[in-house]
Design goal:
By secondary structure, this protein is α+β, with helices and mostly antiparallel strands. Helices cover about 35% and strands about 15% of the residues. It contains 18 helices and 22 strands. Strands 7-8-14-9-13-12 form a six-stranded mixed beta barrel. Strands 3-4-5 form a three-stranded antiparallel beta sheet, with no helix packed on it. It has a three-stranded mixed beta sheet with strand order 6-10-11. Helix 8 packs parallel to helix 10 and helix 9 packs across helix 10. The chain is extended.
Length: about 650
């Protein structure tokens, strides 16, 4: 095993060597730390000297009125928060992106952001135009290139003026008038956006209280009255309150959708009926009443206030439903009312509150002996109307109202009774709609409901406004007196009895199934745009499709037979050389979009029937000049010459 004394000597030597190594390592680490501390102190002193020198140079540049950079100074020691480490100062930099502008929107907001950037970065006045011009894009960049050539030295105020003239609203604009005329047509959010855009332009001449008045004046009546009662102190509170009442109305409509009673806002659309059901014998009625001769209302009782009563309550600040003062968050103590009546009582008379009713013929697009078809003009568009003595009110189809862009009054939806007992849900009403029949102007209210076959239905409500009427259903003539003059309306014949005298010596154009669908699609588009109308003409020309270069189809009517019998115009169309001679020495030229240019020319009423054409399902004629007629090019050229 070896000598124990030698092992002890070796262990002692190893321990001495380890102790010596640890001492050397500790000394080396201490020296390294000392050198690093000295270097850190030297760097800190150098950084402090650099910052002091930098501040002195900046002060000199500021006194001289010049800057060594582009005007974008991201750091100022005297104005920026600093982190102190001993005697050194470490700056904190903040990067801001300069806004860009391409000329596609109002420059007012962009110029305001530029001013904020210049103020935050303390940009010198001489550098503002250059910095803003560097961030122009697209059309705005081309505009500044022209301005720079015409006015080499433009200061910032002139730049803002030129930019507002080029991309802002035109001269003579009335932002305050636009703000006054702005009305709510959709949601509150959709109304706020254009209101704030117009208010930015007109804010200099509108006080805070006037801003609130202008905003509330444009709201719909159902929300405006509630907002005015809250007396908001500023525009922000007014907008917030309006959104709150809009949300409340949506919740109320959702919870009261099962009510049978509907209240309109004006005229013939008001109803105040309430339903009652008998209480079964032995059942417990509300409030503990168990008498079998009592009935309770199955729907909430609606108390109708007149306009005078509403104005009086609003002036006193009272709630519409109870006699307490109204405030935000007000809740009526009476959550509902009960109406009790004896079973032996006579049923109340509801003649003055008649529920809207439409005949089965009108809603299904059929015609009977008590109806007559007339052509009505509403907002310049022809509509097929049905005068129906079996319908109580006036109705317009949802498709026609949507196509004409009519404003459907919100909160006026109702259930319309069909003659056979069914109910049709109305989407609302269009009040005070103006329309023409045979050059006679009328104004009426319309319920918006889905109709099949007719655009509008004129019921007894409209017939009552005409006074005494002489109606001949054999000749389909209706006469009445208006302003001391006799007016006669001639109704249109029923399509089912129409016998078209069509030419039989024309070649048939056979179409594939997909072409038939395309023909009907384009025909429906032209009918909706008022380019064509249903026809009873003895003329008829076939329809065919011609494929364009882009793969789409062109709707063509084969007028070759009609052109062969047409008297041709006896003057020539100008050639290109003659037109170029007329443009000699001209300096200014204008242009216009001639897409479907022929459709800008109205057809003579006597010649409309000659343009008739047939599709797979019906017969139509053009109200405007179609393509393919022999004299169409010369007529259009004469219009261009004029």
């Amino acid at each position: 095993m070896g000598d124990p004394s030698k092992r002890e000597e070796l262990q002692a030597l190893l321990q001495e060597a380890q102790a010596a190594n640890e001492a050397r390592i500790t000394e080396a680490v201490a020296q390294s730390e000392s050198r690093m501390v000295n270097q850190l102190q030297q760097l800190s002193l150098q950084l402090q000297e650099f910052i002091v020198g930098f501040n002195k140079n900046q002060g000199k540049d500021s006194d001289a009125g010049a800057s060594s950079n582009v005007g974008n100074q991201p750091y100022r020691p005297e104005n920026r928060p600093n982190q102190l480490t001993g005697n050194s100062v470490v700056p904190r930099y903040t990067k801001l992106d300069f806004p860009t502008f391409d000329g596609s929107e109002d420059p007012l907001i962009w110029l305001h952001r530029c001013e904020k950037f210049f103020s935050n970065q303390r940009t010198n006045e001489v550098d503002k135009v250059g910095l803003a011009a560097f961030h122009l894009l697209g059309e705005a960049q081309l505009w500044y290139h022209q301005v720079e050539q015409e006015y080499p030295s433009v200061d910032w105020s002139e730049f803002k003026e030129y930019c507002a003239l080029r991309f802002g609203p035109p001269l003579g604009s009335n932002p305050l008038g636009d703000l006054v005329n702005l009305k709510q047509t959709g949601s509150i959010e959709e109304y706020q956006r254009p209101f704030q855009e117009r208010l930015v332009r007109a804010s200099k001449c509108v006080r805070v209280d006037q801003q609130v008045s202008l905003f509330t004046a444009g709201l719909i009546d159902s929300i405006r009255l509630d907002v005015e009662m809250c007396s908001p102190p500023d525009l922000v509170h007014a907008m917030n309150i309006a959104r709150a009442f809009e949300k409340k109305q949506k919740l109320v409509r959702a919870t009261s959708s099962r009510r049978e009673t509907w209240q309109g806002t004006k005229g013939y659309f008001s109803t105040t009926t309430s339903s009652t059901i008998p209480t079964p014998k032995g059942s417990n009625a509300p409030g503990g009443i168990t008498e079998p001769k009592l009935v309770s209302s199955s729907a909430p009782f609606i108390k109708k206030l007149s306009r005078a009563e509403m104005a009086e309550r609003r002036a006193k600040g009272l709630c519409y439903n109870c006699d307490e003062l109204y405030s935000i968050g007000h809740q009526c103590k009476k959550l509902f009312w009960l109406e009790l009546a004896d079973l032996d009582d006579e049923e109340p008379d509801h003649k003055d509150a008649q529920e809207p009713e439409i005949s089965l013929y009108a809603i299904t697009g059929q015609k009977n002996a008590r109806t007559m078809q007339l052509l009505a003009i509403m907002k310049g568009q022809p509509l097929l109307s049905l005068v129906d003595s079996g319908s109580t009110h006036n109705f317009i189809s949802y498709t026609a109202a949507q196509h004409l862009g009519m404003q459907v009054q919100p909160g006026t939806s109702a259930k319309v009774s069909v003659a056979k007992g069914e109910k049709v849900y109305s989407k609302g009403t269009c009040p005070s709609v103006s329309f023409y029949i045979h050059n006679q102007n009328f104004e009426a209210d319309f319920f918006v409901i889905p109709l099949d076959g007719f655009d509008i239905v004129l019921g007894v409500i409209w017939l009552q406004t005409l006074g005494p009427i002489l109606w001949d259903f054999v000749t389909l003539e209706m006469s009445f007196t208006s302003n001391g003059k006799q007016v006669v309306f001639q109704g249109q014949q029923t399509r089912s009895k129409l016998q078209l005298q069509l030419l039989h010596d024309l070649d048939e154009h056979h179409s594939k199934l997909e072409q038939k669908d395309e023909i009907e699609k384009q025909r429906a588009d032209m009918l909706r745009q008022g380019i064509i109308r249903p026809s009873r003409s003895p003329f008829s020309s076939p329809v065919l499709l011609v494929r364009k270069h882009d793969g789409t189809w062109r709707f063509c009517v084969d007028y070759r037979e009609l052109n062969a019998k047409t008297v041709k115009d006896k003057f020539l169309i100008p050639v290109v050389d003659e037109l170029l001679d007329e443009l000699y020495e001209s300096r200014y030229f204008t242009k216009l979009d001639l897409k479907s240019g022929y459709h800008q020319v109205r057809m003579d009423p006597l010649d409309i029937e000659k343009t008739a054409f047939r599709t797979h399902h019906d017969h139509f004629e053009f109200l405007v000049m179609p393509f393919g007629l022999s004299n169409a090019p010369s007529t259009f050229q004469a219009l261009m010459n004029e």
